[in-house]
Amino acid sequence: RDCLGLSLSLGMTVPPSPLYLWRHPAGLNRVRRAWVIPPISVSENHKRIPYTLVQIKSDKQQLGGVIYSIKGPGVDEEPFGIFSIDKFTGKVFLNAMLDREKTDHFRLKAFALDLGGSTLEDPTDLEIVVVDQNDNRPVFQQEVFTGHVLEGAIPGTYITKAEATDADDPDTDNAALRYSILDQGETELFSIDEHTGEIRTVQVGLDREVVGVYNLTLQVADMSGDGLTNTATAIIYVDDINDNAPEFTREEFSVRADEAVGGIDVGRLEVQDKDLPGSPNWVAKFTILEGDPNGQFAIRTDPKTNDGILSVVKPLDHESRERYQLRVAVQNEAPLQAAAPKAARGSATVAVEVRDVNEPPVFHSNPLRASVAEGAAPGTAVATFSARDPDTRQHQRISYFKDYDPEDWLRVDRATGRIQTKRAINPASPFLKDGWYRAIILASDDASPARTATGTLSIEILEVNDHAPLLTSPTGTLCSDPSQGSGLILGATDEDLPPHGAPFHFQLSPGSPELARNWSISQLNVTHAWLRLRTEAQEGLYSLQLEQLLNVTVCRCGEAGVCTPGAAALMAGGAGISLVALVIVLTSVILLLLLILLVAIFERFRQRVREKGLLDALPDDVRDNILNYDEQGGGEEDQDAYDINQLRHPVELVPPTAFRGRQPLRKDAPYHRIPAQPSRALPTSPSDIADFISDGLEAADNDPSVPPYDTALIYDYEGEGSLAGTLSSILSSLGDEDQDYDYLRDWGPRFTRLADMYGQH
Question: How many CB atoms sit inside 10 A of residue 337's CB?
């Protein structure tokens, strides 16, 4: 077969030789397969364009008799217009710069047609390969790489790995990368593998307390280290280990604490640690080694400062111990490295001074339990709820008080704390909880300020069997035929609490043995029993004596065991009390009401007789009047000082609405001022006279314009002789022994003294 020559020139001015893609051997009639053409190479970034890549020829027609075309990516597919062909000469041109990193090769189809458009040859593949150039720098995958390494790490310890990429052809030196460290400070403690980028330690000496962070400048280069370069940063953190023990800032500490107070902070123990703050290698943990046998102190760690906070967890007592000497130690939460140096001040002494304060009294037993029987009489001893004063060096007196006693049942002796009942205890009180009564007692000293202790007194109210059981229903109905009905179920209740309540025992009265011949009682449960007839009984009401009288109505029953309608009246009579008893009760009530009415009428009549005797029995109204005269002489003719008719016939006075004219002035009133006369309702019966007089005297006493009636006034001599008699001459014609002055008490408190003087003794 014929050989096929291909002339391809890259960057040369010599034109390529024609490429016969469809050359056919002479004398052969069969169709041969197209030639396999080797790829055509062209460098990326070729700048002289258009550039002839190749010229294709067909030997089936003479020059000018064939039309050539190409199709595929870069021609009529994306990216368009990169390649073109001269349809008459068959020259293939490069029309644009190529980028291998975008497309590294193109596969085109070449066609040969005659001038009439008929296919002369089968389509043939034409492959164009883009040759790589070192036009891309290597790029680190990160701008900053980080890594961690423990302080004190041995040489060769892996820390981190730096990685970079290159967009050039990985099969060429254009992408052959090499790593290096450009800068890592004064001490070369780290190295990087030039092929893998792994960073490791190369020597000992890493100490976080000296240098905690290292910054390395990394470089990567292609062309095996001789080409394009790029840089990145590696930050290496030195992680802490517990290679420094915590230490107290001083060997001795002194604090003060008040006695009788728990749960308070009394001092701080300062420590220092060079390890990383906040880490377990830095956090301190404190232990009390000596001086606290009873566990009265505790030390916790301040999370911010790492200091120890000393607190009192149990109250101290100055009287029993005035000073404590504690020995405390400190260490980290994390164990100390074996190679770490020992702390110089890993322990310290803490002196605690206990200050004396006034403490509240302490009850000997709190809470205190006691018991009292229900219904106990007032004055029953309950308990002695006493307390002691812990301040033994201060002579103080303790007093006792009640703080909570909702039923006010108790009395507390102020000096001794002895408690007695104040009134009878009621077991039905709502303040009893499961039979217990709670009271609060206070014990207070006499210091300034006083301290008070609170004690709880729990009193068990003991149940007493003071209530007999009662039938739930004292009546019932039974069929006269024992074979009918189910009998009568009896129930009982008891106000007493267990164990004085149920179970109940039901029995007929032993004093009536004949009851047992006709009746039987069988226990049903702890609170109920069954009553039955032994033999057939006549219809009627039967009263059975148990502990309580039971009325049983015996009636004729039907087939269902229920009383027939004809026995309804009998059942009604036996449902409660008998008709005769009901009539007796109603009659007694009526007679009692009549008796009360008669007594009320009689008392009203007696009262009216007394009032009439008071006013009508006096034949004369003898009354002395203290009068004020402007001149000597005169005497009894002036009767205007007081209207005596108000005492004689008050009901006959002029009505309040009638015109009464100007009221006369009191002779002892100032002339320039007329006192106000308020209207007063006149009494309508003799029984209102006492109130009327009292109201009048009160009005006169409260009148600021005149002296009161009982004011002592000084008068000149008025002469001798008077028609008026003395007080002792009132009704002197009658003996005192014949008069009853007790009715004066009904006039009000102002006449009580007069009744005492003249009344019967």
Answer: 15
Nearest to 466 by CA among 494, 434, 491: 494
The span from the CA of 221 to the CA of 229, in Å, is 4
Phi-psi region for residue 185, left (φ > 0), alpha (ψ -120 to 50) or beta?
left
Per-residue pLDDT of 632-691, as tens digits, reads 444 444 455 445 555 444 444 444 444 344 444 444 444 444 445 555 666 666 556 767
**Rama region for 290: left / alpha / beta (φ>0; ψ in -120 to 50; rest):** beta
pLDDT tens profile 484-527 = 877 888 888 877 767 777 888 888 877 777 777 788 888 888 88
Q: Residue 660 corresponds to which tokens in the numbers above?
A: 């009464």
Sorted by sequence, the CB contacts under 8 Å of residue 16 that are 6+ apart come out as 6, 7, 8, 9, 52, 53, 54, 55
Alpha carbon of residue 400 to chain centroid:
35
Would you give the DSSP letter of residue 318?
T
pLDDT < 70 positions in the chain: 1-37, 61-63, 466, 497, 566-583, 609-688, 690, 698-739, 759-761
3-state secondary structure 602-620: HHHHHHHHHHHHHHHCCCC
DSSP state letter for 56: E
The structure tokens 């004066």 sit at 744
Could you tell me where the beta strands, DSSP code E, fall in 82-123? Answer: 83-85, 91-94, 105-114
- Sketch out the chain's domains with CATH numbers: 40-131 (2.60.40.60), 139-239 (2.60.40.60), 247-355 (2.60.40.60), 362-462 (2.60.40.60), 470-555 (2.60.40.60)
Sheet holding 381-384, edge to edge: 381-384, 418-421, 410-412
Rounded-to-integer distance, Cα 473 and Cα 481, Å = 22
Count other C-beta atoms under 10 Å from residue 451's C-beta.
Answer: 19
Q: Which two tokens stand for residue 201?
A: 């330690």
CA 410 from chain center: how many Å?
35
DSSP sequence for 393-422: TS---EEEEEEE-TT--EEE-TTT-EEEES
- Residue 663: what residue type? Q
Whole-structure pTM over 0.70, yes or no? no
Question: Cα-Cα-Cα-Cα dihedral of 717, 723, 724, 729, to 10°?
Answer: 120
- Quick one: tokens of 339? 């190679």
Which DSSP string corresponds to 124-171? EEEEEEEEP-S----EES-SEEEEEEETTPPTT-EEEE--EE--S-TT
3-class DSSP string for 548-609:
CEEEEEEECECCCCCECHHHHHHHHHHCCCCHHHHHHHHHHHHHHHHHHHHHHHHHHHHHHH
The bridge status of strand 252-258 relative to strand 264-269 is unpaired
Give the pair of three-digit tokens for residue 121.
């040859």
Q: Strand, helix or coil at 387?
A: strand
HEC profile for 486-497?
Answer: CCEEEEEECCCC
> Which residue from 515, 584, 577 is spatially nearest to 541, judged by alpha carbons?
577
What is the spatial distance between Cα 744 and Cα 399, in angstroms, rounded to a whole number? 55
